[in-house]
Amino acid sequence: MRTILLIAIGGALGSVLRYLTTLFINKHFQLYFPYATFVANILGCFLIGLFLGLLEKHDVAHPNLKFFLITGFCGGYTTFSTFSSENISLFQANQYGTAFLYIGLSVVVGLTATWGGLMISKL
Fold it and tell me: Is 71 assigned a ligand-binding role in the annotation?
């Protein structure tokens, strides 16, 4: 039960931070591209890499911390479902180039961000 509560708290914090990220991005950038979801997902990828690396580096074996940070917080912060629906909307609007750019950048930059987080955790 404690694990479920930690995941729920982490997820709530991550979801609220994603909402605040979306408000900030939408306020400061023109929306010709789904920047808010892209930024949240990339930052989430970076954080997952960083958290995993730090947990390993400091030999933190307690699974509840991993559930709180990775499953809860990062899971709540990132959003694959919004990414998918935004791409469907782009395809329906015949914005194929933007959709493929969004998909490609999300995969390449997301993997790079996760790797970057892992590398920074080793410093």
Answer: no
For residue 6, what are the domain limits? Answer: 2-121
Mind listing the pLDDT tens digit for each residue in 36-70?
A: 999 999 999 999 999 999 999 988 878 899 999 99
Model pLDDT for residues 35-44, shown as the tens digit of each residue: 999 999 999 9
Is 22 annotated as contributing to ligand binding? no
Question: What's the CA gap between 71 and 89, in Å, rounded?
Answer: 28
Determine the residue type at 63.
P
Q: Is the distance from CB of 48 to CB of 70 less than 8 angstroms?
A: yes
Report whether 57 contacts 119 (CB < 8 A). no
The position carrying tokens 């899971």 is 75
